[in-house]
Amino acid sequence: MPEGPSIVILKEEVQQFTGQKVISVSGNSSADIHRLEDKIIQEFKTWGKHFLICFEGFTVKIHMLMFGTYRVNERKETKPRMSLVFENGELNFYTCSIKILEGDINALYDWEEDVMNEKWNAKKAKQNLKKIPDEMICDAVLDQNIFAGVGNIIKNEVLYRCRIHPESLVGKIPPKDLKQIIDECSIYSFEFLDWKKNYELKKHWLAYTKPTCLRCNLPMIRKHTGKRNRRSFFCTNCQKLHI
Fold first, then answer.
1. What's the CATH number where 27 sits?
2. Does the pLDDT value for residue 191 go beyond 90?
3. In the 3-class helix/strand/coil scheme, how is 130-158 assigned residue by residue?
4. Are residues 81 and 140 in the same domain?
5. pLDDT at residue number 66
6. CA 239, CA 243: separation in Å to the nearest integer?
7. 190: domain range?
8. pTM exceeds 0.85 for this model
9. Least C-beta-crowded within 10 Å: which of 42, 136, 161, 199?
10. Helix/strand/coil for 4
11. Which keywords has UniProt assigned to this entry (predicted)?
C-alpha cells in the first residue's frame, strides 16, 4: 500500500494537468466518473494516502489500496479503473478505489492530521493519543485520523529510531518518548519522500524487513502486532516495552 510520501510524488508528477479540461473519461469504476468530462481540474491535493482531484463543486478521491498503480502519459495493457484524457496527455489509474466527494474539500478534510501537510499539528496528535491510552503504539501510529499518511514502513522505522517496542501501550510511554514518536512520524515521512525520489529508499531502512538489529547485532523479531495485525520488525533488547 503506497504511503503518504508516494502520494505526494504522484501529486507532483501530475501538475501539468492543473487547469486543464478533461476531454474524455473511461474506465471500469462504479463511481460516476463520466461527470468529469469537459470539467476543468482546479488543483490536486493529498491527505495522507488519499489522492484528490479537485473540480468546482466536487472532488474525486483516489485510494490506491494495496496494489493500486498509475501511469502518466502512458497506459498498461489492463483496463484502467479510470482514464482521464487531456489535450496534452493522459492520466490512468489501476486497481484502486474511486469515490466522488461533494462540496468544498476543505470542509471534508482536516489538514492538521496529515503529517506532510504544512498545517500538520503535532499538538493535536498528542491530544488524540491521550484519548487512547490502552492502545498499542503500533496501532496508534497507523491511525489515519491521527497520523494521516503514515504506513507500515514508516511505523516500523519510527519506532526503531525512538527505541520503542511496537506493543507498548500509548498511555505508558513516557511523554518525551511519545513526543519524539510524534515528531519522527513527520520527519521520517519527508526523508522517505526524498529517498524515494532518488530511488534509494530501501537502503535507508534500519528495521523494516531486517533480520538483525543494527544496534545490538541480535535477531530482529518479526511479528504481526496489535489489532491491525500488521507486520512489525523490532529488537527486544533496545526497543523498550512499556505496559
1. 3.20.190.10
2. yes
3. HCCCCCEHHHHCCCCCCCECCCHHHHHHH
4. no
5. 85
6. 13
7. 112-234
8. yes
9. 199
10. helix
11. DNA damage, DNA repair, DNA-binding, Endonuclease, Glycosidase, Hydrolase, Lyase, Multifunctional enzyme, Nuclease
